[in-house]
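Q: Given only this backbone (152 positions), what sequence would you predict?
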């Protein structure tokens, strides 16, 4: 697997791997000791665990899903590191009883470094976008999005 030539390549290659259900290609974008935090706070600490987690998801509840980048912002931090924000649309996730769920929108942040053979992701964090909401609250063991603004 070729490493990304620029930080701008990372979201495209991530989406290509996801949409092909290729967890190995997806994980190959990451450094061996990379960290990945998903939308519910599961935290994987290396490429092998990132691959294993995505192989499971891409073969089960994401097996018919497709992600598309809807916005990308690359910020160079010096010459050899970059922060890449990507706004994703996720369609086709499967629910617990087999139904196709509504589209989701997320933002993923990649932190990448240039290596001798290309760019590698050192860390990534994905979070769901909850329109109109300000934070997460918990009650009786359940978490839910809330806003504190009047009339909303």
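A: Predicted residues:
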């Amino acid at each position: 697997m070729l490493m990304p030539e620029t930080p701008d390549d990372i979201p495209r290659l991530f989406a290509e791997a996801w949409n092909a259900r290729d967890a190995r290609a997806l994980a190959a974008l990451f450094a061996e000791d990379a960290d990945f935090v998903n939308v519910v706070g599961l935290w994987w600490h290396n490429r092998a665990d990132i691959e294993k987690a995505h192989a499971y998801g891409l073969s089960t509840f994401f097996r018919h899903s497709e992600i598309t980048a809807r916005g990308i912002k690359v910020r160079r931090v010096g010459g050899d590191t970059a922060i890449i924000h990507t706004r994703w649309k996720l369609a086709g996730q499967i629910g617990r009883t087999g139904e196709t769920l509504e589209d989701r929108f997320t933002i993923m942040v990649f932190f990448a470094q240039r290596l001798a053979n290309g760019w590698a992701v050192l860390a990534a964090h994905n979070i769901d976008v909850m329109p109109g909401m300000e934070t997460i609250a918990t009650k009786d063991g359940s978490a839910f999005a809330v806003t504190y603004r009047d009339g909303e």
